Request: fold
Amino acid sequence: MPLAYPTGEDTFTPYGNFAFHVLFEWTGSGKHPGEGVDEAVFGGFSDISGLEATMEHKMIKVGGRNYGAAMRAGPVSFGTVVMKRGIINSPHLWRWWSMFAGADGAPDGRPLPAFRCNVLIGLLNTIGNDPEKNRKEKKETEHKVRVGWRLRNAMPVKFRIGDLNAKGNDVAVEELHIVHEGLEMKGVVPK
Reply:
């Protein structure tokens, strides 16, 4: 049986995993920790891991069916997403985490559902990436989101500063671990 490729998609060129953008989509009425700050600063990450969903299968033994058991879909669980970025003069990730941990100095010390948000992660594809031609024509390289994922109702559960080492020359890194209630994949945007 021949397999048909979807029309309008380049099925031979995979996207690189190095060009992506993160956007926090605030859905609640609570105070946004990055209020008044450019979203690119709030979400400028160098490394993201844990974008995964796992479904537990259910095995059902059926009488008279000797060639393997019947498989059924079971509950789905989502991995903890770890986002890393170099430490910058912008404490917004810490503020968001502290709202849930009670470290924000609020008298109630309780996290509110309104502090949750959706996290959008888009994989970029560079268009017109000939720097010499762009310089001559005074054009900017255009980046378009081709594939995207949405983490629904995300909540930070861990904030971590990487090891500090006076002997090294690495960039100081902060990590934010996020749990969420659903992973959605957005399709390829037409060219």
Summary: The chain has one domain: 20-186. The mean pLDDT is 77. The chain has three helices and nine strands. Helices lie at 39-42, 92-101, 131-136.
